Amino acid sequence: MWIFFTIAVAISLATYLKSDNFSLLDNILNTTDLVLALSVTIAIYLWGDHTSRFSRFDKGCLVAVVVILLFWFVTRNHVVTHTLTQGILVIAYFPVVSRLWKTRENSESFLIWIAMAVTPAISLLSSKGTLATIYSVRAIVCILVLLMLMLRVEYLSRKHSDLVGSA
């Protein structure tokens, strides 16, 4: 997952930079996301579990990223490519969403995800251009959905505990 996430974030940043005369600091969230995703990918490669294989979902996302990249090379349409890439970045949240929907125990940190929601909100203050705004808003919406699902898991877990405790 982190490989295609890194590629998608890189495409997003590249299309942003090519769309106008922007610098890396003009879309600081996308820039720092690339550093984070690349760092995690390298760490997993160096120290992670090498026995895991690409799932069908991972392969599908990787194919979608490659198709978007090819579309960009052929059309040079930065805006459409950037928007399609945001769709891939939304899809990257699906495994976490699925796990949170199915589970009764929240393994995610509220503190980290709240900080991750605040970061793109703050980046909106310094970002330049529509594509940077799209990137930040996409991140905010995706993270808020995860936070709501985390609250749902906590609610259902407490409700289940109350039912078991009163029985």
Structure characterization notes:
- The protein is mainly alpha-helical and 167 residues long.
- It has one domain.
- Helix content is 81%, strand content 0%.
- It has 7 helices and no strands.
- The protein has helices at residues 2-19, 28-47, 56-75, 78-91, 94-102, 110-126, 130-166.
- Helix 1 runs parallel beside helix 3.
- The longest helix has 37 residues, at 130-166.
- It is globular, with a radius of gyration of 18 Å.
- It starts with a helix and ends with a helix.
- The mean pLDDT is 89.
- Keywords: Membrane, Transmembrane, Transmembrane helix.
- The chain crosses the membrane at residues 29-48, 57-74, 110-126, 132-151.
Structural class: mainly alpha
- Structurally, the number of domains stands at 1
Q: What profile does the largest beta sheet have?
A: none
SSE ordering? HHHHHHH
User: Rough shape?
Assistant: globular
Low-confidence runs (pLDDT<50, min 5 residues)? none
Q: State the total count of DSSP E strands.
A: 0
Mean pLDDT, as a whole number? 89
Number of helices: 7
Transmembrane segments: 29-48, 57-74, 110-126, 132-151
Keywords: Membrane, Transmembrane, Transmembrane helix
Write the layout of secondary structure elements.
Blueprint lengths: L1 H18 L8 H20 L8 H20 L2 H14 L2 H9 L7 H17 L3 H37 L1
